[in-house]
Design brief:
The complex is a heterotrimer of chains A (203), B (431) and C (662).
Chain A (H helix, E strand, L loop, with lengths): L2 H20 L4 H6 L2 H4 L18 H12 L8 H5 L4 H12 L12 H15 L4 H4 L12 H12 L9 H12 L3 H10 L2 H10 L1
Helix pairs in contact in A: 4-6, 7-11, 9-11
Chain B lengths: L5 H19 L10 E5 L3 H13 L4 E6 L4 E2 L5 H5 L8 E2 L2 H5 L2 E5 L2 E5 L4 E4 L4 E3 L2 E4 L3 E3 L23 H12 L5 E5 L10 H16 L4 E5 L8 H12 L8 E4 L7 E5 L4 E4 L3 E3 L2 E4 L3 E3 L1 H5 L8 E4 L4 E2 L5 E3 L4 E2 L7 H19 L8 E11 L2 E12 L4 E4 L5 E2 L6 H23 L1
Parallel strand pairs in B: 1-2, 1-9, 2-5, 9-21, 11-12, 11-17, 12-13, 19-22
Antiparallel strand pairs in B: 3-4, 6-7, 7-8, 10-18, 14-15, 15-16, 19-20, 23-24, 24-25, 24-26
Helix pairs in contact in B: 2-9, 2-10, 6-7
Chain C lengths: L2 H25 L6 E2 L2 E2 L15 H8 L6 E3 L5 E3 L4 H6 L7 H4 L18 H12 L8 H15 L5 E3 L2 E5 L3 H4 L11 H15 L3 H9 L1 H8 L8 H5 L10 H14 L1 H8 L2 H7 L8 H5 L16 H8 L26 H37 L15 E3 L3 H25 L4 H10 L2 H32 L16 H14 L13 H25 L1 H7 L3 H31 L9 H4 L1 E3 H7 L1 H10 L1 H5 E2 L4 H30 L4
Antiparallel strand pairs in C: 1-2, 3-4, 5-6, 7-8, 7-9
Helix pairs in contact in C: 5-6, 8-9, 9-10, 12-13, 13-14, 17-21, 17-24, 18-19, 18-20, 18-24, 18-29, 20-22, 22-24, 24-29, 26-27
Classes of the chains: A mainly alpha (203), B alpha/beta (431), C mainly alpha (662).
């Protein structure tokens, strides 16, 4: 092989990382494809697929990585998550974190909401700050209730790993209020779309 | 060499790109804002219109559609079971108007490719810098003798959600107990591949409660069909499939399931091997690209070939064909696929207007089928473009079907997620 | 391809690729991080993409006063409470928790937090980045950096176990609560002081328990007096080391004085303190008498220095100390008339003596210099013999007296050097000299040896003088010319001398001994007695105290030092002038070493004696040959050495005297 050719190959090798980068769609383009289930820019119109707009990016990454390795119980997300590289997951996480969360009202039971308020304040507020608004522990306030229900079923049934310390709190809430505890909390969060939204729009 | 910093470099290259880009869009040099005409108010057309406005509000988007309201075909099988009304599938275009899309209810006659304008029946014409064509499918009426558009009024295809869906629903309702329904499935490719089989399940769901001795027979010109294993498992669990007493029966090509002729008066079907008579017949004819595509010289064979990087027609520049009408192997003809393709096309059009290269495309398809009140199944795929093969390839190791033998809880959740998918995809395209 | 252009073209291609892809982008300013075109969301650092955890988020759990504990992953209860207002008021109040707790990247933390607080690293980096800033915002950090350096050399920074260097005896956070470090003058600092005994006591339990019962401990731990001494006041904050070492013993002694300033000063003017000040630790230190951790008020009957216990305490070192020791004032202060009147009076008397004598003789010296200089200019003087001249000399001192003078001079100088080294222990030269001498113990031997020689010389002289007097008792005239006893003529001579100084008469003539020569003689004679006697008392304290009260040591110390100073300053100024530096003698006189004086000079200086001797015919008997050349040269060298040594000592003494504290 001639020397010139060596040099040209070297130059092409230098180009490689850029080429590799160009092989991924942008984070926005990847994120658009989620809208069919999670709503435009991640604000789901229900009834059960969760809103992921304004979601904490690391919670997003946790979820996707867990789905990717079948660590978290899933119907369809495990199959989808496997398609994405770590970088793509992070890009999407950042994209959705910046989207404004639009929430819709859900019908809730007043008595359950009342009980749920008490339970939340006592067992959940420290981690799920400000009534479970979007934050570093995910989005609970105004989240779709069936989704919350599935999540709690999975936690309690051992199909999903509790985050550190959460089990203790859930057990304590159930010990205190029995079978009503989880529905009460879910109704409480389901009732929070207004406050969560109002606050979110201030940011 | 004078000092050149990175920003200057970008400016120079962007400028060069702009010059190159405007060569392809000479109109841009005069027009203040680029114009896009979208033909077809289905999933592909609506999504493209909405995302074009979302990505660049300077773009003037006009969507031309024949019907005042959109009725989704997806979920329309639920009308047959009685779980849903047709009205719950019908949506107006007010949402798109709020996004600044100009909605024109009219019928496009043809695209003047040379003049870059679209003409309508009412005599109007719309200039475009880019034209999005998303007409959906049309039927090949000559495939089954004795079956045509007129006959379809009484022996419905119900493959576009609308009056025929109601006709089919009424025919089933008025069918005697122990009656027989035949569904004639189409050959590949056709829109909504699992649709005929979900339809069988939805009819069975109705019959299970109201006409428990009824039979549903699927005559299929294929030997295999979408989500086959999951359907068979679901059918058997819910409707006794595989037993002598099964409510649903499927005859594939090898069993003589290919239908050749219909006698509408006796509701008799002549298949390859034998004749079938039924109380209710639902024929889903073979399909091809919508009429506008043919009228505008965008078709090769039955479908419109496209550059899958942008979904621009390979036959004519600045025309982008989306959804069921396009030839987008290996994506199926589904709502989610059209939605996904529309976003890729919208981004590519915006990039071109801005003198940039189209970004790397990404596609997703998810498709749910509801077999019973608490029994949903799905298929999912994430795709990337293999440029060399001009093929949209599923990403290895990802996607696929719901697991066989999943728990009842999982199947039940998939129904709920199917409904979520429906609401969100509608909202994403026109909300 | 054309081979000629292919090479350069290929190189150009490679160069351009590298330039645009790697070199140019690297030149841009701080880059905002993007992931596939997406910038970091709010709450994340735009450059690093890392989460920024606000303090308020951490305080959600850690700042809840109503829930100050939690359980760890093993189910053990742990303290998690950080008082929010304390933290916010602290010097670190504006820092985010995760800046120090660097392994916490998310909240709620997914793993148990390790304490990954890089105190030293962070403070150093911050200092390096900000030390050159013109405003004083980071000035205090400079102090922190100094403390860090001290800490790193301290025993705390050494590994607990030599085989495992990762576990130190004590790390920063063993003593500091980083969440509650106050700025200067803040309430946190007072609190931190009050907590100091408990913080140190966490490891040093035995010491804490002793301290608790001490006068300091009670003030701090019972009365909450943040002004009272805590551990770090004596042991330092960061320079902690074993109290067995000299450095720490000296440091603690110094540190006691940071509060007990007067006591430190008075201690340092005592022998104990002088040695200590010079860096030696074998003499009594504060805690040797008062007790260390268990120090009590003097009035407390349990105190080691309470009158009842004091002798026992002295006997720790002075094994045979008699009762008399109790009367000694270890912190006696000659400036404090109220408490120590005898010391005050003694000191004042001695000072007056010094000032009076020196004042008189320095004036005498100056006037003499002036007049003699004028006379010499006017040719009213004798001519110094030129070398080789066959000058006639007269014998003035016998060999015995010359030897006595030399021994006396040398031993005096040794005494001055070794004595003032202690007296002026505050000076830099003192430490240097003490180290040269080999420490206070060697110094003591030296001083006492010299003192013994000195006293012996004095006694031998006294004996010879007395023998001579006795032998010549028939002819010896107490007030005659050969007697050193001052007489009326001396008084008249003083008047005559002053008249000459002022030009009112010719230079007076003298007999064998002039009045200043008599003074030069009597000054050391008196000095020898006083210094010798006081020195002897201090030399044998046990014996002294067995029949004298202890306070005589205080008096003896004053008298000994002041008299020695007077002698030193007199000898090396007035005596040197009279004998060597006045214009007739300058630069030196060797008479005391050769023993002979040129007849001309003798005639001039001691005209009366000359005439008397001539008359009696004794003069002929006393005439001698000029000293040999060797003798002359040797004497000059010896005189020069002694003069320079004397002037050197004088300089040291002046430095010490002028810089004397208090």
């Amino acid at each position: 092989m001639s020397r010139e050719r060596h040099i040209i190959i070297l130059a092409l090798l230098a180009l490689l990382p850029i080429t590799a980068l160009a092989e991924s769609p942008t984070a926005a383009a990847l994120s658009y494809t989620c809208a069919g289930c999670h709503g435009t820019d991640g604000s789901s119109v229900g009834p059960s697929s969760p809103s992921i707009a304004g979601m904490d990016p690391e919670i997003f990454i946790d979820a996707m990585q867990d789905y990717k390795v079948d660590k978290r119980n899933a119907t369809i997300m495990n199959r989808i998550a496997k398609a994405y590289s770590d970088e793509q997951i992070k890009g999407m996480a950042w994209y959705f974190a910046k989207q404004k969360l639009e929430l819709l009202p859900q019908s809730t039971d007043t008595q359950l909401v009342e009980l749920g308020t008490t339970l939340h304040d006592k067992y959940c507020e420290k981690c799920h700050e400000e009534g479970g608004r979007s934050g570093d522990t995910g989005t609970l306030a105004g989240q779709w209730m069936p989704y919350l229900d599935y999540a709690m079923e999975d936690f309690i049934a051992g199909r999903r790993d509790y985050p550190r310390k959460m089990k203790r709190k859930v057990d304590a809430a159930i010990k205190a209020e029995g079978e009503q505890a989880m529905p009460a909390l879910i109704h409480y969060y389901g009732s929070q779309h207004n406050s969560a939204q109002k606050e979110a729009s201030h940011e | 060499m004078s000092k050149i910093n990175r920003r200057d470099f970008i400016r120079v290259t962007a400028g060069a790109g702009l010059v190159g880009g405007t060569l392809g869009f000479p109109g841009l040099l005069m027009a203040a804002s680029p114009k896009v005409v979208v033909i077809g108010g289905g999933v592909g057309g609506c999504t493209a219109a909405k995302y074009l406005r979302k990505l660049d509000p300077k773009i003037e988007v006009t969507l031309i559609e024949t019907k005042k309201a959109y009725t989704s075909c997806f979920m329309s099988n639920e009308v047959l079971s009685g779980d849903r009304t047709l009205e719950s599938l019908t949506f107006d275009y007010e949402g798109l108007k709020r996004h600044g899309v100009n909605i024109v209810i009219d019928r496009v006659t043809a695209i003047d490719l040379a003049m870059k304008s679209v003409a309508t029946e009412s005599g109007e014409s719309f200039n475009y810098d880019a034209c999005v064509v998303s007409p959906g499918v049309d039927f090949k009426w000559d495939a089954i003798e004795g079956y045509d558009a007129e006959v379809a009024e009484t022996i419905p295809h119900a493959w576009f959600a609308g009056p025929q869906t109601m006709t089919l629903r009424k025919q089933i309702e008025s069918m005697p107990e122990g009656g027989k329904v035949i569904i004639v499935a189409p050959p590949n490719p056709y829109k909504c591949p699992p649709g005929p089989y979900e339809r069988a399940a939805q009819i069975a769901m109705y019959c299970k409660h109201h006409k428990p001795r009824a039979k549903i027979l699927i005559l299929d010109p294929k030997d295999r069909f979408s989500k086959q294993g999951l359907f068979r498992q679901g059918w058997s669990k819910l409707y006794g499939f595989g037993t002598d007493d099964s409510m649903i029966e499927w005859v594939g090509a090898a069993g003589g399931g290919t239908v050749e002729e219909l006698d509408p008066s006796t509701r008799t079907l002549q298949a390859e091997v034998e004749e079938f008579q039924a109380d209710v017949i639902n024929i889903i004819p073979p399909q091809k690209a919508g009429k506008v595509a043919f009228a505008s010289d965008l078709v090769e064979g039955d479908w419109c070939p496209v550059d899958k990087l942008t979904f621009e027609s390979t036959r004519h520049p600045n025309v982008f064909v989306l959804g069921d009408a396009s030839s987008a192997a290996k994506m199926p003809k589904s709502a989610y696929a059209a939605n996904s393709q529309a976003k890729v096309a919208a981004a590519a059009i915006v990039a071109r207007f801005n003198g940039q290269d189209p970004g790397e495309p990404t596609f997703v398809n998810t498709c749910y089928s509801i077999l019973g009140e608490a029994h949903g199944i799905s298929v999912a795929a994430v795709y990337s473009l293999d440029r060399e093969a001009n093929t949209i390839m599923p990403i290895k190791g990802s996607g696929g079907l719901s697991p066989m033998d999943a728990s009842e809880e999982q199947r039940k959740r998939e129904v709920s997620y199917a409904h979520s998918w429906f609401k969100n995809v509608i909202d994403d395209m026109m909300g | 391809m054309n081979k000629k252009i292919a090479g350069p073209l290929a190189w150009f291609f490679l160069g351009a690729t590298l330039l645009f892809l790697y070199i140019l982008p690297a030149h841009s300013a701080v880059e905002v991080m993007t992931v596939l075109g997406e910038e970091a969301p709010p709450g994340f650092d735009p450059v690093t993409g890392k989460r920024v955890i606000p303090t308020v988020r951490c305080l959600k759990c850690h700042g809840d006063e109503s829930e100050q504990t939690d359980v760890d992953d093993d189910g053990n209860e742990i303290e998690i409470y950080i008082p929010p207002h304390k933290f916010e008021d602290s010097v670190h109040g504006k820092r985010r928790c995760a800046e120090c707790h660097a392994n916490i990247t998310r909240v709620p933390h997914r793993q148990e937090p390790e304490v990954v607080v890089g105190c030293i690293e962070c403070h150093r980096q911050t200092w390096d980045a900000n030390k050159d800033k013109p405003d004083n915002e980071f000035k205090r950090l400079g102090v922190v950096i100094e403390q860090i350096e001290k800490y790193q050399d301290s025993v705390h920074a050494r590994p607990e176990d030599e085989d495992d260097p990762s576990v130190l005896n004590a790390g920063c956070y063993d003593c500091h609560d980083a969440h509650n470090i106050g700025t200067l003058g803040s309430h946190q600092r007072d609190e931190h002081r009050l907590e100091n005994p408990e913080v140190c006591g966490e490891c040093h339990r035995k010491q804490r328990n002793k301290y608790k019962k001490s006068v300091h401990g009670k003030a701090v731990m019972e009365d909450g007096d943040s002004e009272a001494a805590v551990c770090s006041d004596c042991h330092t904050m960061h320079e902690i080391d074993s109290p067995e070492g000299d450095k720490v013993m000296l440091q603690i002694t110094t540190n006691c004085g940071n509060c007990h300033e007067e006591s430190r000063q008075t201690y340092r003017s005592s022998y104990h303190g002088q040695v200590n000040k010079l860096g030696y630790t074998h003499t009594a230190k504060c805690y040797d008498c008062h007790g260390g951790h268990n120090v009590l008020a003097i009035k407390d009957p349990a105190s080691a220095v309470h009158e009842e216990n004091r002798l026992e305490t002295c006997r720790q070192c002075h094994e045979d100390a008699p009762e008399g020791f109790i009367g000694f004032h270890p912190h006696g202060n000659a400036n404090d008339f109220e408490k120590y009147p005898v010391m005050w009076i003694t000191a004042k008397f001695m000072q007056a003596l010094i000032i009076g004598i020196l004042a008189f003789f320095w004036v005498h010296v100056m006037l003499w210099f002036y007049r003699e200089y004028q006379d010499r200019k006017a040719g009213k003087s004798f001519a110094h013999p030129k070398p080789g001249d066959d000058t006639v000399y007269i014998r003035r001192f016998t060999a015995t007296w010359r030897w006595i003078h030399l021994l006396f001079a040398v031993s005096t100088m040794i005494l001055v050097l070794s004595g003032t080294t202690l007296l002026f222990s505050h000076t830099a030269w003192a430490s240097f000299v003490m180290d040269m001498l080999g420490g206070p113990k060697v110094e003591a031997i030296l001083h006492r040896t010299a003192a013994t020689i000195w006293l012996s010389v004095f006694l031998v002289h006294f004996f010879i003088a007395m023998t001579n007097i006795v032998r010549n008792r028939k002819t010896f005239r107490w007030f005659g010319p050969s007697s050193m006893v001052p007489n009326l003529q001396d008084l008249r001579d003083v008047g005559a001398m002053f008249s000459w100084f002022f030009g009112r008469r010719e230079r007076p003539s003298f007999d064998r001994f002039s009045y200043w020569q008599k003074f030069d003689y009597w000054a050391p004679f008196w000095g020898a007695a006083v210094i010798g006697f006081s020195g002897l008392m201090l030399f044998i304290p046990t014996l002294t105290a067995s029949f004298l009260p202890g306070w005589v040591f205080n008096i003896a110390t004053i008298v000994h030092a002041e008299e020695a100073l007077l002698a030193t300053m007199f000898l090396f100024t007035v005596h040197f002038f009279n004998s060597h530096f006045r214009p007739d003698r300058f630069p030196m006189s060797t008479i005391m070493f050769t023993g002979a004086v040129p007849l001309e000079e003798f005639k001039f200086e001691h005209r009366l004696e000359y005439e008397r001797l001539k008359e009696s015919g004794e003069l002929e008997k006393m005439l001698v040959k000029p000293p040999s050349r060797t003798m002359e040269k040797g004497s000059q060298a010896l005189a020069a050495v002694l003069i320079f040594a004397g002037l050197g000592l004088l300089t040291l003494v002046f430095i010490g005297y002028m810089t004397m504290p208090g």
